[in-house]
Amino acid sequence: STDDTTDIVKVRQMITACEQGQLHVIQTLLTESSRYASQQDEATGLSPLMAAAKVGNGALCQHLLDAGAPWNAIDRQGQCAGNFATTHQHWGVVNLLVDWGVRAELILGRLERRLRDAGIGNLE
């Protein structure tokens, strides 16, 4: 469909902008739709967050995470943003992603406990 084609083009624009550190392009695209932060290239599985992590752009990684980019998404090779940051020795980005992941897991754990205590069951 046209929406799918548009999304493919937009996610590739997001990835290129992340690789080049073009925050204004990212902000413009996210204003159009926040879903572009969480989409991945169909062929490679690369996400904007992975591209930003690979080049070590911590500010851009933070912006994408705040916009809803999943910190734990993996590409077609089984690599996540943290793998890209580690491989390229961008330790500040690694720490950012680890901190984000720990917070997300703590929040999820707290939510699961509250649901269980309320007799609602698990989230799986």
TrEMBL record:
Which Pfam families does the UniProt record give? Ank_2
> Which sections of the protein are ANK repeats?
44-76
Instruction: Cite a single GO MF annotation.
Output: guanidinoacetate N-methyltransferase activity
Q: Which GO terms describe its biological process?
A: creatine biosynthetic process
Instruction: Name a single GO cellular component.
Output: cytoplasm
Q: Which keywords belong to this entry? A: ANK repeat
Give the protein name, as stated in the record: Uncharacterized protein
Query: To which species is this protein native?
Result: Entomoneis paludosa
